[in-house]
Automatic annotation (TrEMBL):
Residues 180-376 form the NodB homology domain. It is a lipid-anchor; GPI-anchor. It is found in: Cell membrane; Secreted, Cell wall. The lineage of its organism: Eukaryota, Fungi, Dikarya, Basidiomycota, Agaricomycotina. The keyword Cell membrane applies. It comes from Sphaerobolus stellatus (strain SS14). Its main location: membrane. This is chitin deacetylase. Coiled coil: none annotated. Its EC number is 3.5.1.41.
Length: 463
């Protein structure tokens, strides 16, 4: 198996260095199974060879040369594979309630998009009051700009700040237990090209985890319902996608609270797993997250992977800071390292932009399928059923919620500092909004500047 993996990595690396595959198909919809010509012949001497070409892996892949920054649109969005109605019950989530009626949902009843929600609303005040018994660690809010703008905090091991050193705690999920098992996830949607990804996942009978942004959920609730009803795991990725360590305790409560609320309003269940935007988490954020019943999930990094960050970098194609070939090189490096570490792994990918969806469906996932990797939602790669992903259906005997859910007991101390650390930061995700066919939203300059600063900070080497 390992030799096959290495061979596929080598084939992908060659492909990543090529300007484009030989196929020229204009749509990623209707892709046939990708495993047609992948073979592993042996000649009796030396390692087996594994002939995988991009064209054979997914003949309908968009040519790499067409997956570029600030696209003219090269692929059309496709309709949702299914349309979900109120009262329907998901077949894959044992004990799940029926889908609620969302006809009455009004975005005006939720916070403005892409901003940290105000903390003086009745809802947020109620959530703050519910957490009044908790005592959160006295860790200072960080400044935007990441490690270079927070030199003291970056050197402070007691806060276990992932952004500056990839420190994580035992309460964070950063891997899957079983070697060569991929806990799959896509962040920052639902977005215009999410249906294209869903279509491919359905064709291949693959399930993933979607870390969704509340601002996107209220914009596309029907997308979220199809993701959920298709058997994918839904998890929290905050309301506005700001770096959480830059926010006050009350703002973090608002970010988590509104995200949980909008997902429950749309699905009838609320997730108990969350991913901090940019991976930006410290022990203060962890404590608030735990108090609100949320378990952090980060991609494989730091001590868990010999300081290799399992980040494809796909989010940055749209901004032009990495090429599609560069993302495939990152992916081959991830696969190479996946064969080395003793656990399974979690990779950072996104469904926000057209380019990242095209890479995932045309190249990354087909290659992983050809390698016979076990691709699972993150909750299931932890050996748990999908029902353990939601508060309403979680089996507390097998998956106890984080400390103190329900108002007791006091969280008087941060988790013990047992996490790993490394010498470099890592690129993370960012938040942006981009539609298609004229449906383009832009963030305010202030928000974009904040996120850019955070991203630059997270990319910088520190500590
Ligand atoms: Zn993100």
């Amino acid at each position: 198996m390992r030799s096959l993996v290495v061979a596929v990595v080598a084939a992908l690396l060659v492909a990543a260095q090529s300007p484009s595959p030989t196929s020229s198909v204009s749509s990623i919809s209707g892709a046939p199974p990708p495993n047609g010509t992948a073979t592993a012949p042996t000649n009796g001497s030396g390692p087996p060879t594994f002939a995988v070409t991009l064209a054979s892996t997914n003949p309908t892949a968009i040519p790499l040369a067409s997956i570029v920054a600030t696209l003219p649109v090269t692929a059309t969005t496709i309709p949702l594979p299914t349309s979900e109605t109120a009262g329907a019950v998901p077949t894959g989530v044992a004990g799940a309630p029926p889908l609620p009626n969302i006809l009455g949902i009004n975005p005006k009843d939720y916070p403005p998009l892409d901003h940290p929600p105000p903390t003086d609303s009745p809802e947020v005040q109620q959530w703050i009051a519910q957490l009044s018994n908790f005592e959160f660690p006295n860790i200072s809010v960080t400044q935007t700009g990441g490690c270079p703008n927070n030199t003291d905090a970056a050197k402070d091991p007691t806060r276990c700040w992932w952004t500056c050193g990839q420190c994580f705690q035992s309460t964070d999920i950063v891997t899957c237990p079983d070697k060569l098992t991929w806990g799959s996830s896509f962040d920052d949607g639902p977005a215009p090209y999410t249906p294209n990804l869903l279509n491919y996942l359905n064709q291949q009978n693959l399930k993933t985890t979607f870390f969704v942004v509340g601002s996107r959920v209220i914009s596309r609730p029907d997308y979220l319902r199809t993701q959920y009803m298709s058997g994918h795991q839904i998890a929290v990725h905050t309301w506005s996608h700001f770096p959480l360590t830059t926010l006050t305790n009350e703002q973090i409560i608002a970010e988590f609270g509104w995200s949980k609320k909008v997902i429950k309003d749309v699905l009838g269940v609320q997730p108990i797993y969350m991913r901090p935007p940019f991976g930006d988490i410290d022990d203060r954020v962890r404590a608030i997250s735990a108090a609100m019943g949320l378990t952090p999930v980060i991609w494989t990094s730091g001590k868990a992977s010999n300081n290799v960050s399992f980040d494809t970098g796909d989010f940055n194609i749209d901004a032009g800071t990495i090429s599609s070939s560069g993302v495939l090189k990152n992916f081959t490096n991830i696969l190479r390292n996946a064969t080395v570490i003793n656990s399974g792994f979690i990779v950072l990918e996104h469904d926000l932009f057209q380019q990242s969806v095209e890479l995932a469906t045309g190249y990354v996932l087909p290659a992983a399928l050809a390698m016979n990797l076990s691709i699972q939602p993150i909750v299931q790669c932890q050996h748990m059923p999908l029902s353990n992903a939601y508060l309403e259906t979680n089996d507390n005997s097998t998956n106890p919620l984080p400390t103190g859910v329900g108002g007791t007991p006091l969280a008087t101390k941060p988790p013990s500092s047992t996490g790993g650390s490394s010498s470099s930061g890592s690129g993370g995700s960012g938040s942006n909004t981009k539609g298609s066919n004229g449906d383009v939203k832009t963030l305010s300059i202030g928000i974009l500047s904040s996120m850019l600063a955070a991203l630059i900070g997270s990319l910088a080497v520190c500590c």
